[in-house]
Amino acid sequence: MHRNLGTEILGVMQKRTVVKFLLIFTLVFNASNLFAKESEKEGDGDLKTTIKEFINHHLQDSHDFTLFSDEEAKTHFGFPLPVILWDGGLKVFSSSKFHHGETVAEVNGEYYKLYHGKIYKTDAQGTINYDEDHHATNAKPLDFSITKNVVSMLLISLLMFFMFKSLAKSYKKNNSIPTGVGRFLEPLVLFIRDDIAIPNIGEKKYKKYMSFLLTIFFFIWFLNLLGMTPLGVNVTGNIAVTFALALIVFLITNLTANKNYWGHIFWMPGVPTFMKVVLAPIELLGVFIKPFSLMIRLYANMTAGHVVLMSIIGMIFLFKNWIGGPLSFGLAFALSILELLVAALQAYIFTMLSALYFGMANEEAHH
């Protein structure tokens, strides 16, 4: 049975490796087409600017889901998303009104313009005013739009729901032997339970945190993998998303903490009174630094990976020779393989540290 399970897992992993290879190749191919077209009509200086703009566009969220674009024909292939604004009242319309930022959207007599990924209130001509530092000074309505990152998170959430629902059904039918996708999920669930939750939280209290730990691990991992596809999705490279995840960890840690946890922060046992007064503010600061480190670590690592990978792909067209081009392509491919490891590693680190914080919050007093 164990041999069959291992064979099944190996087969699934091999299929995933092939799919990832195809996705990586497609990403490089799509970026190469764009840079090649630009390099034919621009100099090196303009090409560098184009590469920077492409990277920034890949990192940013957007109000439409563009699969790919033809820059020469100025056509975009994808689908619009709903724009939801609050500006003296609720305003809902399709992002197709912006036409990828090229036109001004008119809604109930008000005019809005999409500028560098943000929506500003403007006039019929789409005038954007600037300050001395060339920052837009137009009023911005409250934006609750369903963006590309939101759609990606909803899709990953649905995927996780059906995957784990299938796993639960297979346990009901076959008692303790999962089937289908459950054979791939079970070793990972056991790994999170036996190597992350129990060692860091303890056997008595780990169960109440298991659902969150499983959710956060697969949620981050799948989003990281989705970010490596040619879809241009960069959810975990968005600091607002990593902030929300870190905030949830912060709330769970402190709302479920016992009195011993707070006692060690504000009045450490076995420490002279003078040192308690000095250390208490430092310990309290650590309560906020720990989730902040979670936020920055995930955001910085995933953003850096995307920037470096796209920069190396762009170097193919900056070298313009038979030596630099293949070397850059080979380096980009090797880095893409490394990014697959980083995608899982960052999910593991976030889950591990979350479990560690939960364990610290529930640690019993030692006599």
Please characterize this protein's 3D structure.
63% of the residues lie in helices and 11% in strands. With 367 residues, the protein is mostly helical. The chain folds into two domains: 71 residues, no CATH class; 212 residues, no CATH class. A three-stranded antiparallel beta sheet has the order 4-3-8, with no helix packed on it. Strands 5-6-7 form a three-stranded antiparallel beta sheet, with no helix packed on it. The N terminus is likely disordered.
How are the elements arranged and paired?
Layout: H1 2-41, H2 44-59, E1 64-70, E2 75-80, E3 82-86, E4 90-94, E5 105-107, E6 110-115, E7 118-122, E8 142-143, H3 148-174, H4 182-201, H5 207-226, H6 239-255, H7 259-266, H8 273-319, H9 324-361
Antiparallel strand pairs: 1-2, 3-4, 3-8, 5-6, 6-7
Helix pairs in contact: 1-8, 1-9, 2-8, 3-4, 3-5, 4-5, 4-9, 5-9, 6-8, 6-9, 8-9
Summarize the structure.
The chain is mainly alpha-helical. The protein has helices at 2-41, 44-59, 148-174, 182-201, 207-226, 239-255, 259-266, 273-319, 324-361; strands spanning 64-70, 75-80, 82-86, 90-94, 105-107, 110-115, 118-122, 142-143. The longest helix has 47 residues, at 273-319.
What is the overall pLDDT average? 81
Low-confidence parts, pLDDT < 50 over ≥5 residues?
1-10, 17-22, 24-44
* Class by SSE composition: mainly alpha
Element-by-element helix/strand order: HHEEEEEEEEHHHHHHH
Oligomer: single chain
Proportion in helices: 55-70%
Backbone shape:
globular
Q: How is the main sheet built?
A: 3 strands, antiparallel
Q: Can you tell me the number of structural domains?
A: 2
Number of helices: 9
